[in-house]
Amino acid sequence: MMFDHNYLLQLIADSVEENPELEYKAAGALQRDDKKVMEITKDVSSLANSNGGVLIYGIAENQNNKRFPEKIDPVDCKSISKEWLEQVINGKIRPRIHGLKIHVVAIPGNPDQVVYILEIPKGETAHQADDKKYYRRHNFMVEPLYDHEIRDIMGRQNSPKIMVDFEIVKIEDYIQVVGGKKFFHYFLNVYAQNVGRLYAKYINVTLTVPKRCVNLQKYEGQNEALTQLQLDNKVRDLVEPNAERYYQGPIAKPKQYGPARHEPLLPGMRTAIGQIPIHEYSTDSGNTISWTLYADNAEPTAGEVEFCDVKR
């Protein structure tokens, strides 16, 4: 997502309401007094303790209809700099929130007037505000966490964090040439990436795609419009042919594979878990890939993307 001036204008024009993962704050929320600093740490840590999200400093809410943006209310970056905001967040929230980003959007015509957009990831553990309490976002409010909720959040460290992504590859068919025209095969490559700190032993992805996009009959499902595919991190090792089997002449010994096993995905690693033949027209808009990912004892995650938005 491009966090720029047009993004802010679009939020206002579309009257995008606040939600558990989006919050607006006017410029006055950023001040150097202790009370405001405390509120900053509560707002930021509460998002990290929930599902993460976007916190915008520099948009005023509609006074008659709370939670809706009314106008840009820029921050004076000479008095409230990005560096100061980073120091508050990194120095007063414990433990530090890894992966947090602060985007600075300058207001056209006045470089001293900016909006700060904080991109806050879901925390890998519970984060404590400057008042030594833990908070979360709930029903548009910042609320203290109960003891069992803190324990649940801290338990995130006991589960792997896996992401799924896709790539479409185009491979030339060197055999099939008709009338001087070359033909190509298209494949949807599916990858699993470990972005956490724990390794994952078992990975399973339930993929749902339009049946018309898939280029093999064996992938046809029961639903007339959609088909589901099950992908995982199982591998089979190539082994030597059985020594007791003997073939004469030009007959080759067939490849033999060992039993299926799960290949663990270590932190930072990315691995292919499937390659699906697809039709060329799959990249037309309107064809959506949906998935649900399961990994060890982690909570299932889900998402979707259109074929036309997949990396090529």
UniProtKB/TrEMBL annotation:
One of its GO terms (molecular function) is ATP binding. Transmembrane segments: none annotated. Keywords: ATP-binding, Nucleotide-binding. Pfam families: SLFN_AlbA_2. Residues 18-139 form the Schlafen AlbA-2 domain. This is ATP-binding protein. It comes from Mucilaginibacter jinjuensis.
